[in-house]
Design a protein that fits this description.
Blueprint (H helix, E strand, L loop, with lengths): L1 H17 L19 H21 L4 H8 L3 H17 L1 H11 L1 H19 L5 H30 L4 H9 L1 H32 L2 H7 L21 H8 L11 H10 L16 H13 L5 H4 L1 H7 L4 H26 L8 H18 L5 H31 L1 H33 L3 H59 L1
Helix pairs in contact: 1-20, 2-4, 2-7, 2-8, 2-9, 2-10, 3-4, 4-7, 4-19, 5-6, 5-7, 5-19, 6-7, 6-9, 6-10, 7-8, 7-19, 8-16, 8-18, 9-16, 11-20, 13-19, 13-20, 15-16, 16-18, 17-18, 17-20, 18-19, 19-20
Length: 497
Amino acid sequence: MQQAEAESGVMASKLLKKNMPPAAATKLGYTPPDGGWGWAVVLGAFISIGFSYAFPKSLTIYFKEIQEYFSVSYSQIAWVSSVMLASMYAAGPVSSILVNRYGSRPVVMVGGVMVCTGMVLASFGKSIVHLYLCVGVIGGFGLAFNLQPALTIIGTYFQVKRPMANGLAMTGSPVVLFTLAPLNQFLFDSFGWRGSFLILGAIVLNCCVAGSLMRPVNKTAGQKPKTEPAECNGAAAEEAATADTGAQSDNLLTEENQSEGRSQGCVHRFIDVSLFRHRGFLIYLTGNVVMFFGFFAPVVFLAPYAKHQGIDEYSAAFLLSIFALVDMFIRPTTGFLGNSKWIRPRIQYFFSFAVSYNGVCHLLCPLASGYTGLVVYAVFFGLAFGMVSALLFEVLMDLVGSHRFSSAVGLVTIIECGPVLLGPPLSGALVDIFGDYKYMYYACGVFMLVPGIFFFIMHYFNYKRLDEEKRQSMAAEMRTCEETVQLKMSQDEKADG
């Protein structure tokens, strides 16, 4: 009897601990080092992600001259960046499969070679279609092989410090853009757009150096025990419920068990299609599809908009540098904030605010007059864009867990390639129709503000549902433990009798 009561007390103390915030845990089967060589991996990801996102934006410096050279419209020239970004997103599943099969290091190095090849071939272009194929398709696929492996490998090295690591890695985009924007203007003045493309092809080979830093994590160090003794059947439920940090990780146990049970075949080895039954993933995907119609166009048209207002080329290019400079500092700051104990448990609300803030900035942009007004807009836009970019993949990892992130980001990018492809050309078409950029900024503001509000509402209900599921799981576990104690007590009574 006394032994049974003691066991009951131990179980009660364990259940009390479950009321506390869950400790960092993963389903990776090992404990991520959260440091060490991981910081070298963050440096490699910093370079790789930097080129992936900054390269299409920095090429906008050449748009006005290429537009005049080939005698094409605003909408047609916008397709260069759109095709490049869309190819980068469309190649997401291919990159996922290659990363799951070969690891991040070789995929990133191949991607660097592909972008270099595309830029070199584009320098000999005779038509705008040639640029679509070389810069857009070949270069875009190369950027996909740089982006996704860099994002995925961070999740294998970091768990507790993951938002911070992601924020630092995502800072590569504004740093590279801050460097490339004035450099591209200098290259154009010195060598023309053809010579500049040749030089940029050589510069982007630095992605191969970044890839060489992405050594696979040593999974034998700090290996997690596969099983641990438990006094009731709820131990397995506890482990499944703490797949990732924060409340977002406490997804329905039955959903996790069913989805993983049905995904053990050949398809699951590469792409986890069971994510389409994951509530948080569907919320993220729905909002992002709308958001990306207005996400990149304001950056793509920032320099052309300034030139349209009569601002000289170097000053217009400097707007991108200002935007990138602000973006550069806000991304790591956002990562540190996202890693704090106040924000991380409800980090989805932080992301919702960042998306809504972007929309407000674009809606107010037409009110900015003159170069000073554009500088102010560039500062506030840099803050908004950097916050979204720093959180964009962290919140997805928070929703699905590190163990499913590679498949999740592949599925997200293939679906998002549609709005990424159509966003800037549609915005350029508005400029062609009305002869004014303000309608383009109004449209982008709506495309950002609506999903921001959607995220706020849906994540409120999602967090509420997750809390209910957690309470139900704990109640079921309590009943199981009580039944175990009663069975043990009855067995002891029979033994005493």
